């Protein structure tokens, strides 16, 4: 029995004393001892503070302290966040990560090592020299690939993303862009002109044929019809051969 036990306590205490603070808590609250200098004071909280984990019992709910290297924990043997200088791995706080894992200084956890991954090479580009594809015999062609997975700190570095090699092409003259364009334009105009000329000639031929046909029809209408000449043999009198 504690001295000066009181039933009319504040701050969630069920029972308390002037010297030790809370002695028991109201339902669903956690009892924890806080150190103030050389003195420990009992308090009742809705959740356990950092560095403690909660356990529930039929008669009391208590906050127990985590291990010294653990900042927050689920149980005494399972840490969820480590203190500075330690790395979390499988609920434990370690100064050095196991083999095959690396320390992540951002999350302060031991994570798997990630190696670089690159895509397949692209097809080789056309053979070029100084940006041109003609006017030379020896040039260069290139191919590229992309990085699909960047490595972690201890992962294998990424390989080169481009390659170049010598190439040989059939030497040919470069056609000037302006001249080639002009020649194409002239050919197009000439083709259009020839097509228009042929179309006009066909139209003239059809018009001439139509005019000749109409002329013949008019001539047939205006000229009188020729009478059929009598047969000379029909006009001759019969010759009497009896005498």
TrEMBL record:
Domain Spondin-like TSP1: 116-170
Keyword Disulfide bond recorded: yes
InterPro entries associated with the record: Furin_repeat, Growth_fac_rcpt_cys_sf, R-spondin, Rspo_Fu-CRD_dom, TSP1_rpt, TSP1_rpt_sf, TSP1_spondin_dom
Organism: Ardeotis kori
Localization per record: Secreted
Coarse class of the protein's main subcellular location: secreted
SMART domains reported for this sequence: FU, TSP1
GO molecular function: heparin binding; signaling receptor binding
This protein's UniProt keywords: Disulfide bond, Glycoprotein, Heparin-binding, Repeat, Secreted, Sensory transduction, Signal, Wnt signaling pathway
Location of the region described as Disordered in the Swiss-Prot/TrEMBL record: 171-243
Listed transmembrane segments: none
Quaternary structure note: Interacts with the extracellular domain of FZD8 and LRP6. It however does not form a ternary complex with FZD8 and LRP6. Interacts with WNT1. Binds heparin. Interacts with LGR4, LGR5 and LGR6.
Composition-biased stretches (Basic and acidic residues): 175-219
Pfam families assigned to the protein according to its UniProt record, in alphabetical order: Furin-like_2, TSP1_spondin
One GO-annotated biological process of the protein: Wnt signaling pathway
Encoding gene per record: Rspo3
PANTHER family: NEUROHYPOPHYSIAL HORMONES, N-TERMINAL DOMAIN CONTAINING PROTEIN, R-SPONDIN-3
One cellular-component annotation, GO: extracellular region
UniProt record similarity statement: Belongs to the R-spondin family.
Location of the R-spondin Fu-CRD domain: 11-110
CDD domains for the chain: FU
Protein name: R-spondin-3
Gene3D superfamilies: Hormone Receptor, Insulin-like Growth Factor Receptor 1, Chain A, domain 2, Thrombospondin type-1 (TSP1) repeat
Function: Activator of the canonical Wnt signaling pathway by acting as a ligand for LGR4-6 receptors, which acts as a key regulator of angiogenesis. Upon binding to LGR4-6 (LGR4, LGR5 or LGR6), LGR4-6 associate with phosphorylated LRP6 and frizzled receptors that are activated by extracellular Wnt receptors, triggering the canonical Wnt signaling pathway to increase expression of target genes. Also regulates the canonical Wnt/beta-catenin-dependent pathway and non-canonical Wnt signaling by acting as an inhibitor of ZNRF3, an important regulator of the Wnt signaling pathway.
């Amino acid at each position: 029995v504690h001295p000066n036990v009181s039933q009319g306590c504040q701050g969630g205490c069920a029972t308390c004393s002037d010297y030790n603070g809370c002695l028991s808590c109201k339902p669903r609250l956690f009892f924890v001892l806080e150190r103030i200098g050389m003195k420990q004071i009992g308090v009742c909280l809705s959740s356990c503070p950092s560095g403690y984990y909660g356990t529930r019992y039929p008669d009391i709910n208590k906050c127990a302290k985590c291990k010294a290297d653990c900042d927050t924990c689920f149980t005494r043997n399972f840490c969820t966040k480590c203190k500075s200088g330690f790395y979390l791995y499988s609920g434990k706080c370690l100064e050095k990560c196991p083999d095959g894992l690396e320390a992540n200084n951002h999350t302060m956890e031991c994570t798997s090592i990630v190696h670089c991954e690159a895509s397949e090479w692209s097809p080789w580009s056309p053979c070029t020299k100084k940006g041109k594809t003609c006017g030379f015999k020896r040039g260069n062609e290139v191919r590229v690939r992309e990085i699909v997975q960047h490595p972690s700190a201890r992962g294998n570095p990424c390989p080169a993303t481009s390659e170049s090699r010598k190439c040989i092409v059939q030497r040919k003259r470069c056609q000037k862009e302006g001249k080639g364009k002009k020649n194409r334009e002239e050919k197009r105009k000439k083709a259009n002109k020839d097509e228009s000329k042929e179309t006009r000639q066909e139209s003239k031929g059809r018009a001439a044929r139509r005019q000749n046909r109409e002329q013949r029809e008019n001539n047939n209408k205006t000229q009188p019809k020729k009478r059929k000449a009598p047969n000379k043999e029909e006009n001759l009198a019969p010759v009497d051969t009896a005498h």
